[in-house]
Amino acid sequence: MAGKGFDRRAFLAAGAAIIGTPALAQSVNGSGTVEFERDISAITRRNISSFRSLDWQPYFSNLNSGAILVDTQSRALHYWEETGTYHLYPCSVPLTEDLTRLGRTRVVLKDPEPDWRPTPSMKERNPEWPDYVGPGPDNPLGTRAMHLSWTYYRIHGTHDTRKIGRRSSNGCIGLYNEHIEALYNMANVGTQVLLI
Questions:
Q1: Which residue in 67, 69, 66, 65 sits closest to 77, CA to CA?
Q2: Can you tell me the mean pLDDT for 174-194?
Q3: Which residues have a catalytic role annotated?
Q4: pLDDT at 34
Q5: pTM: predicted TM-score of the whole model, two decimal places
Q6: More confidently predicted of 35 and 176
């Protein structure tokens, strides 16, 4: 190099000094740290059971006419076709324990265009609610409904997608409209249902 000479040995020595210098250690939980890890397990609600696949055998003796299992804790609806084909859907469940009915029932009616009337207890709690809502976009039962053998209880759709995965119903089990339509097409009158 002409002019100022390049001193290769000085450059390499300086580089070695920089490379060889140990990094300054900091305590992760020391006062010099900007962030620190904290235990969030006490404040974070875990929902590890949701949306895990289940086997039908612990709940049903057979799959004649198919089987629907609603797990109110994980807010999931499990459906097994007669062939054993399995489907899993997130669902809404009743708001409170006193509105929740558990046990065995069955599908007794499939309604392709559900209309809605509040039950007497709903009307008592919410007198401002309408007495009747016909089929359509404002219907609380969504696009399809399957009536259970228990009076007033249904598995139905909803247009209010915020309700799915939550405690939000007055007793029924709610699904996204596209999920109730799929289930409606697969399940038959007589399908066994178990709510746990």
A1: 69
A2: 97
A3: 156, 172
A4: 31
A5: 0.72
A6: 176
Burial of 155 (0-12, 13-18, 19+ CB in 10 A): buried
Q: Return d(Cα 35, Cα 28) in angstroms, integer.
A: 8
The whole-angstrom separation of Cα 184 and Cα 90 is 15
The token duo for 180 is: 């109730």
For residues 94 and 167, is the Cβ–Cβ distance under 8 A? yes
What letter does residue 116 receive in the DSSP assignment? Answer: B
Please answer whether residues 169 and 93 qualify as being in contact, where contact means their C-beta atoms are separated by less than 8 angstroms. Answer: yes
Q: Beta strand pairing status for 93-94 and 86-90?
A: unpaired
Give every CB contact of residue 57 below 8 A, 6+ residues apart in sequence: none
Work out the number of other CB atoms within 10 angstroms of the CB of residue 140: 20
If 0-12 CB within 10 Å is exposed, 13-18 middle and 19+ buried, where does residue 191 land? buried
